[in-house]
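TEACHING EXERCISE
Course module: macromolecular assemblies
Task: Read the component lines below, then compare them to the predicted structure of the full complex.
Student: A.B.
Group: 4
Components provided:
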Amino acid sequence: MRQYLPRAVAKEVRGGKALFLLAVAGVALGVASVLSIQLLDASALGAFSGTVKAVSGDADLSVLPWAGALDEALLDEVLAVPGVAAAAPVFRADVAVDGRPGVTLELAGVDLVSPRKGPRLLDAGVLEAALGTPGWVAVSSAWAAEQGWRAGDRIGVSLGSRRATLVIGAIVELERVAPLASRRLAIMDLAQAQGLLGGRGRLHEIAVRATPGVSPDALAERLAARLGGRGRVATAAQRTVEAEGLLGAFRLNLTALSLVSLLVGGFLVYASVRASVARRREELGVLRAVGATRAQVVGLVLGEAAVLGALGTAAGIPLGWLAARANVAAVSGTVRNLYLLEGIEGIALTPGLALLGVVTGIGGAVAGALWPAVDAGRTDPRALLASISLEERVGAGAARLLAAGLAVLAASAAIAAATARRWAPAGFVLAVGVLVAVPLAAPAALRVLTRLPRPRRLGVREGARRLGTRLSAAAPAAGALAVAVAMLVGVTVMVGSFRTTVVRWLDATLRSDVYVSTPSWRRARSEATLGPEVIAALRALPGATVAVMRQHAGFGAGRRILVSGVDAALPAAGRRVALVGGGDGAAAMAALRRGAVLVSEPLARKAGLDAGSTLALRARDGEVTLPIAGVYRDYGTEGGAVLLDVATYARLYGPGLPSNASVDLPRGADPEAAVRALRAALPGAPLLIRSNRTLRGEVLAIFEQTFAITRLLEAMGLLIAAAGVTLALLVLARERRGELALYRALGATRGQLFRVFLGRGLAVGAAGLVLGAAGGWGLALILVKAVNPAFFGWTLEVAVPWATLAGEAAAILAAAAAASLYPAVAASATPAQELSRDAL
Amino acid sequence: MPPVLAFRDVARSYRTAGGELPVLRGISGEVPAGRAVAITGRSGSGKSTLLHLAAGIDAPDSGEVLLLGRSLGRLSDRDRTLARREGIGLVFQFFHLLPHLTAEENVLVPALVAGDPPGPARARARSLLARVGLGGRGGDPVQKLSGGEMQRVALCRALLRRPTLLLADEPTGNLDEASGQVVMELLLEVAREEGSALVYVTHSRELAAAADEVWTLHAGRLEAARSGGAAPVAG
Ligand SMILES: Nc1ncnc2c1ncn2[C@@H]1O[C@H](COP(=O)(O)OP(=O)(O)OP(=O)(O)O)[C@@H](O)[C@H]1O
Ligand SMILES: [Mg+2]
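Instructor-supplied answer key:
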């Protein structure tokens, strides 16, 4: 029998090229979507830990700021702790490169003189130049090549509204020493970096090496005791875990989506193996009749599926790599801008990920083939001896599957309801229940089609009607399509709701006319400040009210949050926040002025906070406890945020400059004119001056970027599903060659057979659409009402983007019709002479 | 030596829309080694059902079917399959050859399934094909063959592994009279040469007459044999 397998596979390929290729394509797309997400995911974390490693070397521990920056004086204290062999100070700032929007350098100012363990970034020879040349910086060769920089070039950069000129002193092969580190990483002398960028006396990290024999854990404890609340101590591994935690919800979402693609791909394999089994019922029956055991037949079918899976994997791995590459920019942008982590600079296919691809591909194919294989083992050789073929038992099976689907749905709903309060993924359990129930309902949905009234002529309607009696081929395709449609509808409604919610939130809180910040602000936050001359220019606008904000990434309620100080005394301050539960903004601002805080909804939900409770906030010199005046809506910072009055902020974090500002103009003034006036008043200043309308557009653009990868995954899922429709119809065309030949012999035209198949395609499309829409509606509610609050912490309102959905529905039906074209043409070409061959 | 095939008071009924349909009501009979038995009867009288029971692909409601003295009902599905593989060759009305394979490859399928050494199997296939007059056609795809030629290929496939029992359900039912005659003669001759017992179903009196025995099914029972030796035992 082992000798039979290669022949059987070869025969399959020859006999059903299109079928086989479609199934391979399905596996390939499934593998590609899983792999691309895992590649991006691994690379996102790799970029973070790679950069940590490149900057801190092989440090055992790092001392990091609780709030913005560390006092340089801490360095001596760290060195004084017994067990510290070396301590390397680091000043970090993400500076914007002049004239190149979006181009940044992640500057790391390090002590170039003291010896350093770990990857050597700079050659010994350049040291003198590095210390002696003002603005000397070493950049990665990859980034230099991309920007067209050569050694000796002078580049203008800005941090906040402060400008500096850097000199490209060395171009280092960073990717050789630290392959995953950010390409944007640039190394310069510590003192120079601090001096040029206005950070004198400030550090962002002290990398600590323990004396040999001293356990890093014990040292961490001693350091923490010594520093009190002035710095936090973490190992590199802890920092990576923190980064993982920050990205957790984002990654989970993507992984869930990519698994749906795999599920749909698995359906495709199921459908094609099932088809091949149905088409070869006779062959398998003969094998059984001449004495092949059940195990042999099952092995044969599974073996074929494994070959199919292997081919699909071979195509899927490069495809996944390409898909990941194509999406690096979007995902990297999200990771950099929303999560403030290192962007992804390159993706690396590790052996582990390749193995994952192989396991998903071959495993998915074999899993998809399992049921058809077992079924094939039961092929009844009696059918061969009988002069007429045994009819399929369809009705009972459809009802049983529907019942099973409903049972799964009920069970998952019960689990979700029981665990929703204590367990965040409860919503996902229900979502999985929906995704399982939807395809199980497909046979029953197709059975409904048999109730269509019998038409007078053979054509589209008869094609759709008869589909209900040929479930084994059509139902898996309709089921796979329904899953893809459910996902599409669910995510479309979720994104639409999210978008509408964000737009309403922006309407409520984005009240000023002009907003001012700097190109480096998004990532550098507290280091990217607006100089006094900028504030003065804003105040000089006639009739303007200027509100400033100070901001840093800090810690509160035991987690990493964004801390902002706003001017609560301004008359309109209360209108800039939207309180959960519709509380009074003015009263909340009054409470802020008395030293209270407002916490964002995600923070309140994740840390279990509420108005009336208190927040433990890390200040410059230790932890303080502040009363919470209320909870405000926020869709910008998933990790959580708090608002303080600027006075409180200054008390807790010391004096400092604001990082952004907004201007309210007198009634009737033209914001665009004010923007032009400001640009004229501050010529050449590295500022982002935007009218309300422009800023709103940019916020929404970032929003769209976040969902770009989602759309790619949706597209892949639909593509796989469309392939499934083509496959199912091809199977029907092939299986029913005898029947088609009979129709032709009885005088059916080619056009009629073509229409029959078009009808079948449309029927599969319609069944998939209706079921998918129902499932998608459920998914949308789950995503909006359960998953978003549980994972991201924010409340969304349900808003249905009808126009988008209508467009998608039309596209799906068109895709189903398009998917049926080739099978329809193939079927209509069946000559009547085939009739005799049916007796083979 | 036990008979190749024996039925002991075999009964089989089907559940139909109109209620229980007793098809076989107590069949007893034996097929000794090397003998040819023709089964006749009206359409729907249970001929195919009886053959299914003999091949072990259907099971009686009561009674026993014995292949070389072994009760098929007592075997597991796997052992029943192996018994069929080793002891029985099947010929179908609709040939059921595998398209895309050549005639010789079709004949070799049972050897592939059983994992027989390919050399001897190939030699045997060639000699069988030559025996049925298809010596030169082994390399042809089966689609190119005529109906009678296809059935001869199917006959070779059934005989490849020297079964002690050959079962054929209307082997000529799908052929014209002349080629049906040729196939039937070959079936009887080759079975005799190979020493296989043969049980075949036919509607034709003439073809039935060529057997050593004729069993006629009527109202679920066997009627007395009209020719040959050992008469079926009345059930
Ligand atoms: N799976 C089944 N379910 C219900 N009834 C069956 C089944 N198989 C056979 N029958 C019935 O049993 C009776 C005997 O069938 P069988 O096929 O054995 O007849 P036959 O003698 O071979 O007929 P023919 O000469 O037409 O081939 C028929 O009435 C048939 O309708
Ligand atoms: Mg019959």
